[in-house]
Amino acid sequence: MIVYPNAKINIGLNVIKKQANGYHKLSSVFYPVDGLSDILEILHAKHFSFSSSGLVIPGNSNICVKAFELLKVDFEIGNVNMHLHKKIPIGAGLGGGSADGAFALKALNELFKLDLSILELKGYALQLGADCPFFIENSPKYITGIGEKMMNINLDLSTYKLKFIFPDLHISTAEAYEGVIPSQPKTNLLDLIKQPIKNWKLVVKNDFESSAFENYPKLKKIKEKLYADGAIYASMTGSGSVFYGVFT
Fold first, then answer.
1. Confidence of residue 170 (pLDDT cuts 50, 70, 90)
2. DSSP secondary-structure letter at 143?
């Protein structure tokens, strides 16, 4: 079985409050991106194995392996060979790792005919990471809480073109949050996103951009270049450092 875990973009990202447990309360719109994806193959096997190619994945354990181990605890599933070809830039705010984990869960559910519901899959996905449940349904969502609360929204960018710029720069999550002062936005992002896209430039903000521009001035120039090239909206996605522009 081969699946294609896709990237996502954040349209607006508000850091509202830091909680006692260290997590941050957020609001954002997650939008799935076609045409930018990893490739994950899972096959029945006598012995479990995981391999990867493409972009180098840091760390000793992969989220796809964690997804398998999570289901293995609750179900008598057999072993598999998993191979992940990594194409989505890592640590770029595109949710590639979260997508890999969620798609692994969905593929294993189908491969072993576990008949897990969407709600059950989301429960397992949340154990992998706060952004993972989004990729179970993989449709536009208004996100709140630490990323686990999702609401369907009617948003379609299929008639527009997305252009990405990938700076040779990695901004760690810890560094990104250090530069943000949490605050309650004056207007709910859910209301702002309903405005015409041409208005987003003035009202839909990513709170991580301000400190990122101070620390890495070239990022500000990237956003300015997207607007100069005709984007009707441009933003950094997630905590950075990838930028996207929405073009007619």
1. confident
2. E
Determine the pLDDT at residue 148. 78
Q: How far apart are CA 197 and CA 14, in angstroms?
A: 18
Question: Cα separation of 158 and 170, whole Å?
Answer: 29
Amino acid 164 reads: F
Name the CATH code of domain 156-247 (choices 3.30.200.20, 3.40.640.10, 3.30.70.890, 3.40.50.150).
Answer: 3.30.70.890
- Other Cβ atoms closer than 10 A to 161: 11
Query: 71-85 pLDDT, tens per residue?
Result: 999 999 999 999 999
Assigned token pair, 146: 């630490």
Q: Which residue type is seen at 213?
A: F
Model's pTM, two decimal places?
0.94
CATH architecture assignment, domain 2-151 = 2-Layer Sandwich (3.30)
Mean pLDDT of 110-124: 97
Element (DSSP H or E) covering residue 198: helix 197-203
Place of tokens 């993989």: 138
pLDDT tens sequence across 27-78: 999 999 998 999 999 999 999 999 999 999 988 889 999 999 999 999 999 9
Q: How far apart are the C-alpha atoms of 25 and 243, rounded to whole Å?
A: 23
191 labelled catalytic: no
The catalytic residue among 8, 122, 141, 223 is 8
Which among 131, 141, 207, 223 is annotated as catalytic?
A: 131
Q: Determine whether 205 is an active site residue.
A: no
Q: Any idea where the domains of the chain sit in the sequence?
A: 2-151, 156-247
Give residue for tokens 């997630």. Answer: 238
- Tokens found for residue 133: 């449940």
